[in-house]
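User: My collaborator sent over this chain with a note saying "see what the structure looks like." That's all I know about it. Can you take a look?
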Amino acid sequence: MPKSYRVAILGATGAVGTELIELLERRNFPLSQLKLLASPRSAGRTVSFRGESLTVEAVAEGCFRDVDLVLASAGGSISKQWLPQAVEAGAVAIDNSSAYRLDPQVPLVVPEVNPEAAFQHQGIIANPNCTTILMAVAIYPLHRVQPIRRIVVSTYQSASGAGARAMEELKTQAQAILNGEPPTPSVLPYPLAFNLFPHNSPISEGGYCQEEMKMVNETRKIFAAPQLAVTATCVRVPVLRAHSEAINLEFEQPFSREQACDILRTAPGVILQENWQSNYFPMPMDATSRDEVLVGRIRQDISHPCGLELWLSGDQIRKGAALNAVQIAELLSYHDAGNPSSPSLSSSRLQP
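Assistant: Without extra context I'll predict from the sequence alone. Here is the result:
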């Protein structure tokens, strides 16, 4: 790929697509052309980028001709349909859907964790699930120092994880309840306003939903630890944007809270946020529109000598999706510019 890229965004009018456009501009990604692709019903919309007005095009045969890099966030079936054509046309695709994440031929990348995997691609690089990304950024710095044996995670997932329409539905439902009217769900299966429910993805025979198994399988792949013990409980909560997670870690040896805090203070992509006197720790309101994952309430697990507890909040649309994809693109551009294949995240372009 050249040093200045011809980029296409597939799913440009969705919540993540909109964020991708903003990040490419804000982070000054080296591109010479930006093509915005979406479904036929979104074609014709205009979007501002670097002072110009760009028109959204309907994805169609031949639309990836003369494109170097595709950032896809349009769902798994769309990715399966169109990304092989993009690769055949000569582009590299960074896919935000679940379509290719567990494909052994496709690297699954979190730049703060396994940047070197991005350079092993065969045309497609997968972006992990949002909850997996946020957790990996927070706990991998600890795993590098003392291997983790077991992860128990409970997620508190905002409406943004179900897209822009779910966020609007939450607002509408909240107003309806305040007006004394019944809330009506359409995007999500149950009312979310002033309510919560287990994640609504399909449930397997073993009792785990699809979202929970994503966290299990993707974490193992990213950490290159296929036997890592992981269990998850994922819950949808009435928060507009930014997910939170309560994580219990069991290490091979005791791991002090003080050491964990020292490590996380300098970890890439992490902000340590703790005020014990005020009982102030990461919250979705603080994490919204932030690039970093906020981590805090780190404490010893009183039930296990090798256990640590921590809490995090992170923007699902930003670092949990769009930013991670753009950082992967930056890894590729860094490499194409003739830099070493495993660049340091201290690079100003790679820092959130």
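A starting point for your reply to your collaborator: Residues 341-352 have pLDDT under 50 and may be disordered.
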